[in-house]
Amino acid sequence: MKCFSSLEIEIQRFVTSHDLKIKVMRLLCRSLEVLKMGTINYLDALKLQEKLVSDRKLGKISDTLLSLQHPPTYTLGKRRTDHNLLVSKDELQSMGAELHYTEGET
């Protein structure tokens, strides 16, 4: 691998294990895909994130960073109770905010 030739020289000098050298070089040569998505609703972003995680685990894609924001959105996690909300669901809707119940920690 020849991603960082001057850095590779330093690695050769200071890292003695061949296997470790290979691991270090692989880490240095990894790529990161950045997706600038603007404003996207919570459920669409969640579905995309789940698909990307699946594809990454299968080695189909490289590491990916999503840059996005949601319209006003509230989530309640697995220890949820509606008394955690300071306003009613109807009030949230009237303000243009979405409420989602999630399975994980939020």
UniProtKB/TrEMBL annotation:
Source species, domain of life: Eukaryota
Stretches assigned to the BPL/LPL catalytic domain: 59-106
Organism for this UniProt entry: Papaver somniferum (Opium poppy)
Record-given protein name: BPL/LPL catalytic domain-containing protein
Matching InterPro entries: aa-tRNA-synth_II/BPL/LPL (IPR045864), BPL_LPL_catalytic (IPR004143)
Lineage of the organism: Eukaryota, Viridiplantae, Streptophyta, Embryophyta, Tracheophyta
GO molecular-function terms, A-Z: lipoyl(octanoyl) transferase activity
GO terms classed as biological process: protein lipoylation
